[in-house]
TrEMBL record:
Source organism, top-level taxon: Bacteria
GO molecular function, one term: nucleic acid binding
Lineage, uppermost ranks: Bacteria, Pseudomonadati, Bacteroidota, Chitinophagia, Chitinophagales
Organism name: Parafilimonas terrae
Domain HRDC span(s) in chain numbering: 632-712
Name of the protein in its database record: HRDC domain-containing protein
Pfam families in alphabetical order: HRDC, HTH_40, PIF1
Xref: InterPro entries: AAA+_ATPase (IPR003593), DNA_helicase_pif1-like_DEAD (IPR010285), Helicase_HTH (IPR029491), HRDC-like_sf (IPR010997), HRDC_dom (IPR002121), HRDC_dom_sf (IPR044876), P-loop_NTPase (IPR027417), PIF1_helicase (IPR051055)
GO biological process: DNA repair; telomere maintenance
């Protein structure tokens, strides 16, 4: 269905989406065009959009992602307040939710760039789920005082249809915080009610009597005349016959499955089986069609996808009969049509949202595909699966409707009353409609009211865009995060960097101080009734301010290009490079958007600039080979050669530098000049195993240098590891700490076990203790390939459970200890993430 150009409510809804930042609840009776509107917005909205839905099938049909996967929410109920909350795995609150989340930089960027979030089938979304979404967006967008962190949300659905599912035990936990399970009773919706828009014009039905009857069923106020009219369609003896075009709607899966199987078995034709092609990531719970489709000539089928051809031959829900089956096509004949439809396979895509690093625009990345004929057996279907479909003829068995709205969903699928047959009588008890929904729908908005709200919302939206232009919070937060990375690992970076980063952070804070003063001026100018786009005084202030801030941002960007960072760790260099580039891109994007104010500001101009932004090149590398580290050493040339050798080994074997020789090890070799294996094991970071593996390579460089410069070893003046060990033994030290000290001196697990006369498993247990505390990195003990193999199997592992099942899946190549080490690293990451957020 195309957008109805004469439908003013459609046009007002589109304007509110595009020209305001108001949250919108878009509803309407079945067949009023809600799905059409969603597709239109996806294709024509100027904002950065993500589409979500509560179930996998609904998400695939809407062309988006499930709510829980997009926001990485746990399945546990969310408690909106700490009051009465006891920490356990059966529920989460704000702190435990954020503490558990592990969003990578890409996912954080998606949330930060998001401007419009669409939630389809909102009737099935729980109140606590919406508050959890609100919590996540506020936190990761650094906008804690704004609902959904400043993201505009478009809720689409009909509350009179299928409700949210919430088990009694979970509702018992939540009822103290919510007056109902529905989304509109979430705390964020109570505090910030959305604009209410109801589509009135019905496109599915044209019979006024039937439309009136549906309206009575929808609002649970069925009159005696309506009940009589409805039950006039009651025929308990009606039998489906082959190819009569009727579909049987029932409340339970087993009924629809058994009906389809029985009817298919009656056909004396060859059975053809078509298996779907599933590639990439595609959950079986989100399959939009049968994974294994079994058909016979003569089978009644239903299309489960809209035709993508310009001349639409079929739609989602259209009924027909299979007339012919060939290798690469199925032919279906629909009643009252002259031509057969040749049906080919269709592709459904599972998407993930990402951000283009150059343009900073949200992109839909296809991560999985489901390819199958868009057909299913259609003698019967459940009412739940029929939501959103349209039928000319239906036999309805809703006498045992177990959920509010099921009867309405079933009846409203049909185009006319004459096409309905009731297998069971509808009773008043079957027309359940929650009083909460009736009460909520008393907020319906008139067209005149929407016109007024649109103007005021446009004004507020333009003001918010301008104020956001002069808000550098996200950049400051990113710079602070970078500063923390460096300070937490300051031994890995040069001392000069700390001072430089502090100066950059001070400059950003100073810029924000000036911006805050300018925002005060803007707020004074906003008092008029004019839209900012049409206010000359505001436009003049924007012209002059843009010039000033663009110059400041240019200077800051040049400063970032002069980064003095230097580290001999590729891992630390990458962390620094990536985070510094993120700061640079944020500044570059802000500068580019400010240029939209050099001439007259408008929303369209602003978004035109935003869409055209491309991140400028930024070349900074903190790795020591690109920027030599300064070091205090009597033999700088040797120090350089040793570093070069170490880097070469690491590059060839793809190892982090501490596997071979860290900075302290290089420093000691260049200072003490060991001449043989016995001497090199006295160097910090070298044990017997490492000396045998890499020692000769370093000794060759050292001996050559000593011969050239006529210098000799000074290792005799270095305190031996044995002497240090004896000293520590005079103090009663924790046995785990002894193992940790020996490990840091470069000894392998086997060497430590031999030195201490303890089992290897005992030593591994000691080191796991320090992995949990972040004092040993997992890569120091477990190979990267093994880490990658183990991680998917521990995603849902709970502490205290047995790891035997994990070990059985991974096989003999991976040990129990290696699994425990990866679990310990996960525990450290969770603890560290929680601490960071609390700080």
């Amino acid at each position: 269905m195309a957008i109805d150009q004469d439908n003013k409510i459609f046009q007002l809804a589109e304007s509110l989406v595009n020209e305001s930042n108001r949250n919108i609840f878009l509803t309407g009776k079945a067949g009023t065009g809600k799905t059409t509107f969603l597709k239109h917005i996806r294709q024509h909205c100027i904002k950065q959009i993500a589409v979500t839905a509560p179930t996998g099938v609904a998400a695939i049909n809407a062309g988006g992602a499930t709510i829980h996967s997009f926001f990485q929410l746990p399945l546990s109920p969310f408690m909106p307040e700490a009051r009465g909350f006891m920490q356990n795995d059966s529920m989460v609150n704000k702190h435990s939710l954020l503490g558990r989340m592990r969003l990578n930089n890409e996912k954080r960027k998606v949330l930060q760039q998001l401007e419009l979030l669409i939630i389809d089938e909102i009737s099935m979304v729980r109140c606590d789920t919406l508050d959890a979404i609100d919590t996540v967006l506020r936190h990761f967008r650094y906008r804690n005082s704004e609902p959904f962190g400043g993201v505009q949300v478009l809720f689409i659905g009909d509350m009179f249809q299928l409700p949210p599912i919430i088990p009694d035990n979970e509702w018992n936990l939540l009822r103290d915080f919510y007056s109902s399970p529905y989304f509109f009773d979430s705390q964020v919706m109570r505090q910030f009610p959305p604009v209410y828009i109801e589509f009135q014009k019905i496109y599915r039905q044209s019979d006024e009597k039937f439309i009136h009857l549906l309206n009575e069923v929808r609002h649970n106020n069925l009159s005696d005349a309506g009940m009589e009219l409805l039950n006039s369609r009651y025929d308990p003896w009606f039998e489906l016959s082959s190819n009569d075009g009727y579909i049987f709607l029932t409340t339970h899966n087993y009924k629809s499955d058994s009906t389809n199987a029985e009817e298919l078995a009656k056909l004396r034709q060859k059975t053809f089986s078509f298996k779907a092609e599933v590639t990439g990531e595609f959950s079986d719970k989100a399959y939009p069609a049968d994974e294994k489709l079994e058909l016979k000539v003569g089978a009644q089928v239903m299309f489960v996808k809209n035709d993508k051809e310009r001349v639409k031959r079929y739609f989602n829900g259209k009924i027909g009969t299979v007339t012919k089956i060939e290798d690469d096509a199925i032919f279906v004949q629909c009643k009252y049509e002259d031509d057969e439809i040749e049906v080919s396979k269709e592709t459904w895509e599972n998407v993930r949202y990402s951000v283009d690093k150059q343009t900073q625009q949200l992109e839909e990345e296809v991560i999985g595909k489901f390819v199958q004929y868009p057909l299913r057996l259609a003698w019967a279907i459940t009412i739940h699966k029929s939501q959103g479909l349209t039928f000319d003829k239906a036999v309805i068995d809703a006498g045992r409707a177990f959920a509010p709205g099921q009867v309405y969903v079933a009846l409203s699928r049909c185009t006319s009353l004459n096409g309905i047959v009731l297998k069971s009588q509808i009773t008043p008890s079957g027309l359940q409609t929650d009083k909460k929904i009736i009460e909520f729908f008393g907020h319906s908005t008139t067209e005149e009211s929407l016109q007024e709200q649109l103007y005021q919302s446009k004004k507020i939206y333009q003001q918010s865009l301008l104020l956001a232009l002069y808000d550098f919070t996200a950049t400051i937060k990113q710079c602070s995060a970078l500063n923390k990375i460096v300070k937490d690992n300051k031994a890995a970076y040069n001392a000069e960097l700390l001072l430089w980063l502090d100066e950059v952070e001070k400059a950003l804070n100073a810029l924000q101080t000036v911006a805050d003063k300018f925002k005060l001026q803007l707020n004074k100018l906003f008092i008029t009734d004019e839209l900012p786009e049409e206010n000359n005084a505001i436009q003049q202030r924007l012209h002059s301010a843009a010039g000033y801030f663009i110059k400041q941002l240019d200077e800051l960007m040049e400063t970032l290009k002069q980064s003095p960072a230097s580290t001999d760790s590729k891992m630390h260099a990458k962390a620094y490079n990536d985070n510094l580039k993120e700061v640079f891109v944020l500044l570059a994007e802000k500068k580019y958007l400010l240029q939209s104010c050099i001439e007259d500001f408008s929303v369209n101009r602003y978004y035109s600039f935003k869409k055209d932004f491309v991140a400028p090149p930024f070349y900074v590398n903190a790795y020591a080979t690109a920027s030599e580290q300064k070091t205090e050493t009597p033999h700088p040339d040797l120090h350089k050669k040793l570093r070069e050798l170490r880097n070469k080994i690491c590059e060839q074997k793809n190892l982090p530098i501490y596997y071979v020789a860290n900075s302290a090890t290089i420093d000691e070799m260049a200072f003490y000049l060991p001449q043989n294996l016995d001497e090199i094991v006295k160097i910090k970071g070298f044990g017997q195993a490492k000396a045998k593996q890499y020692g000769y390579l370093f000794l060759e460089v050292i001996n050559e240098y000593c011969n050239e410069h006529n210098v000799t070893s000074s290792i005799a003046g270095k305190q031996s590891k044995k002497e240090r060990k004896q000293k520590t033994e005079t103090v009663k030290e924790d046995t785990k700490n002894v193992s940790y000290t020996l490990f840091r001196e470069g000894n392998s697990v086997e060497e430590i076990a031999k030195l201490r006369n303890l089992a290897i498993g005992t030593i591994e247990g000691h080191l796991i203790f320090y992995i949990k505390r972040g004092m040993i990195l997992i890569h120091e003990l477990v190979e990267q390939e093994k880490i990658v193999s183990i991680q998917p199997h521990i995603e849902h592992f709970e502490n205290g459970a047995s790891i035997t099942s994990i070990k059985e899946k991974l096989g003999d190549n991976i040990s129990y200890s290696e699994i425990r080490m990866v679990l310990a690293a996960r525990e450290w990451e969770r603890t560290k993430g929680k601490t960071d957020k609390e700080d």
